[in-house]
Amino acid sequence: MRGENRGEQPAAGEAPAWARELLEHLRPSGRDVRRIAEWLAATVHAEVALQDAEGKLLAGRRLPLDGDLVADLTTGRIASAAWEGEGRHLRLVRVEHPSRALVLAVSRRTPFDRRAADVVTHTAQVLELLLTARETATAGQLLRRATADLRLAILQLLMVEDTVSARRVAAGLWPGLLDADTACVYVVESTPARRDRLAEEALDATDGDALVVRCPAMDGHVIVLSPRETIASDLRSLVVRHDDTYLGGSARQSLARTATAYGQAVSALAVARFRPDKAAVYAERIHPERLMDPAALRAWTARLLRPLDALPHHTRAELLATTRLGLEFTAVSTAKILGVSRNTVRARMERVETMLGADFDDVAARAVAHLALHTQINLQDGQAVADPAADPPGLADLLSGEAVRAWAQQLLGPLEDDSRDLRRTLGAWVASGGNAERAAQSLGVHAQTVREHVRSAEPILERQLLAAGTDLYEVVLAMLAAGDLPQPVFAGPAQTSSPA
């Protein structure tokens, strides 16, 4: 610690050395009340204590103080006090604090000269500034954290299709944000280290017209949901300004389909990583369900999911929403998105699996369940179901239509142009539950060969296969339609026959 030359006076207009040293403690790297107490003790050759009205010591070393005198200072009756006795000289100064008053006590063996008194007074002022700034920063952090938690809670409610509760929560802080019936979901990707800053910039860019959430499942992702059309351009401008930042967007969906929109945004993000502008919006491909007879598809869906109809509405909705996400993502990611434990996710999915009489280790069964669960959203949107008394079609009927079979051949056909017989490898891999080792045994090849073939099929099919989700399930449905795979079994109590 630098000491001031006792024999020198500062030049006119120049602050004393001790004042310059004290101000150094206001720099971001020096804001520590304990260090200030230590500096004060060394500067005025004294013992120092900073405490509250109850005697809790915040800095320095404990001093014997008169309780009544401390009470007078902390209650505001007096601002400072001096005491002399028993060979000690004591100065006490009230230090203002946003939540409670403190007392700075300085005890030394020699009387307080003008310099020492000035040092104590100014130190008390610096402590007030530092403590106020710290309290304000802490309050701001708590507010930001609480607001971020609310935004995440709203997103989680939308993910399980509880739009009524989501709107109720949002209305208090962001009036009108969820008034629209439809919205788009975007995922902005950066490094985990930049994610918090990116989220703040997204909040500024969207100007309160979007739900901005730090993704609970992926450390580098920020999720943005908004009904406003111009949000995409706002986020694109954000991506352009930063390296290693990418944007994926969904097609416009109803709020009840937020989970679907999120899956689309993640899928688009994979495309954005290879684009010069680092942004992509989910391409509306020809999906197989759009080639099926709508009434027949809805009737089949209602029949397949009928075992769940006896459940209370809330329980049924919870199970369906969790399973829908669980088929798209891992149990760990689904748990983080929904704000529950992964054991809860697994338990809910196992309950659905049992009620449907299906085996979700079978990729084909997962693909069929995925088709039914996403069709089921249409039923919530008010589309009518066929007469329950009528005999609903089976999966084979839905997949045997001319349009579906043509789509399947168009999708899978390019695999046959590869001399490695990728279509055969892919069929064995799917039949083995996506397990390369088991597929390799059935084909008589090395497991690494199976992995390479599956990876090689991805650019040909223009779909992600190694990550479970919509892309993989569409390929599986095409293979079912083409006869490359046997139909999965759904043996729930409401099913009239084993195949789905």
UniProtKB/TrEMBL annotation:
Boundaries of every PucR C-terminal helix-turn-helix domain copy: 333-374, 422-480
Signal peptide start-end: none
UniProt-listed InterPro entries: CdaR-like_regulators, PucR_C-HTH_dom, PucR_C-HTH_sf
This protein's name: PucR family transcriptional regulator
Source organism (scientific name): Streptomyces composti
